[in-house]
Amino acid sequence: MDTDTINAIVLFSNFILVPGMTYGAQLALGALGITLVFGVLRFANFAHGDMMAFGTMIVVMITWWFQSLGITIAPLPTALLALPLAIVISMSVTLLNDRMIFRYYRKKRSSPSTFVIASTGVMFVFNGIVRFIIGPDDQRFTDGERFIIKAREFKKMTGLDEGLSIKVSQGLTIVIAIILVAALFWFLQRTRTGKAMRAFSDNEDLALLSGIDPERVVAITWIITAALATIAGTLYGLDKSFKPFTYFQLLLPMFASAIVGGIGNPVGAIVGGFVIAFSEVIITYAYKKFLIYAVPPGWAPDGLMQLLSTDYKFAVSFMILVLVLLIRPTGIFKGKVI
Amino acid sequence: MISVEDVSLHFGGIKAVDGTSFTIKQGSVTGLIGPNGAGKTTLFNVIAGVYAPTSGHIILNGEDVTGLKPHELFDKGLLRTFQIAHEFSSLTVRENLMMVPANQAGESLMSAWFRRDAVAAQDAAIRDKAAEVMDFLKLSHLANEQARNLSGGQKKLLELGRTMMVDAKVVLLDEVGAGVNRTLLKEIGDTILRLRDERGYTFCMIEHDMDFISRLCDPVIVMAEGRVLTQGTPDEVKANEDVIEAYLGTGLKNKLAAEPA
Ligand SMILES: Nc1ncnc2c1ncn2[C@@H]1O[C@H](COP(=O)(O)OP(=O)(O)OP(=O)(O)O)[C@@H](O)[C@H]1O
Ligand SMILES: [Mg+2]
Known about the structure:
The complex is a heterodimer. By secondary structure, chain A is mostly helical.
């Protein structure tokens, strides 16, 4: 392989592969929460983005507190240490929220659209609470080592023109996502409670006539969802920064991921997350430099070679969503038809 | 055992069940027959807690259970099967059966982690039970098949299998025989009688096959248009003019009418 090809591969990895994997893992974790709630409780939970913001806010505050006490786990970010406590708090808040809001509508056997409207209300409440407590601005809570490999070091090491940088937050995202997904699938496939959740999602009528306690299944679903949301939100916040509004914006790509993969289907949520993430990264990347390496000299284009400006990145999820709903409404893996 | 007391259920203008009263005696196999749309399934749904009746009461062992949720009735030992087979489609046949018993130790997260031995022992017992049931229903070779892939008749067998997984008191069977072959149907009939005699189950079954009914059921309750038309032994019912009228009145050629009274 000549150096141009290797440079092109490194460039591709640095700007598409690594960011795509990271963002894909974050979307997948978010979409899993949405899909679990849809599968078991049978409604689209619009509050999911703001539940993520809430959980992450708790992480940020505990992180600050730990930092003020001088407790850190460098080179890893302190936020990881704050996660367990924050997860417990957001689980409790999520369960309380279910008791106070959603359970009432379950008792009344309300239609899914009523639940969706209720969840929109919950979204505004969480949104308000977060802004009230921590404010609408950007908050930084990252500490510890920033990079696993820096571009400059990579160049020195390999002698290539192009550098590859991998941030700690990116590495963490991917590793944690793999562990979480493995644990979740083990839980759903192997444990009695996990099977009860799948059974409930398959056929609620029948689940009610088996030794399955629906309120327990619902509670476990919220507990898992709260954990996933808090972790996904924290990983996203470590990778970018914590700003409440961005979590609301993530709602569209997360829902797109869940629906593209087949809503109600956990495997689908993961695949959907990566499909959306890579589409977004690939479509908004400027290929000029890549083509300089990839095509013979003199053929290189003058323009940026960018299909869509990053300002429009949310349009990508939207387009994919519309396409999937037109061509295959059940998603890539057969989910529930909505 | 179960008293249905003046129960009505109206869907908008449709009086699916309209002032029905009867009792299911302890240890009986009570047949519930009637033309299509008579309200039999709907009545089962009311007894099993799927619908709360518009009016009337359901008494189970002297206790008013009207309006209790299906799983609460399940806890009281009332099981039912569905006319249109229900299954957990993404779970295997074995998992479908193993899902039935309530209060399994593995269900609590705490004990799933801290009392692994107890969980494993209970799990093994339930697994053995499921194997026994599958063996009986000739479903063993499908143990690890996802339930969605079963044929219609096999799904009906799975319906019946579920009721055999726990010690029930009352079992409501909604056309378990429909779509099941003759040989197996005979064995199912034998099992029903055996469960009653050996374990004291009480059955109430909806069925259209008059031979099957005659062999198993006493008494037989006939419903039409949401009401109880008559009840009695199979022979009495078959001889009843009103019953023949009700079946013919719906325009359906039922074998009941053809059979010599
Ligand atoms: N959920 C429902 N909403 C509205 N009408 C219903 C509903 N369920 C049943 N019905 C109506 O109630 C009546 C009784 O139906 P049901 O299913 O109880 O009859 P059935 O006696 O079980 O008949 P079959 O022998 O065909 O199974 C029918 O007219 C049916 O259309
Ligand atoms: Mg019926």
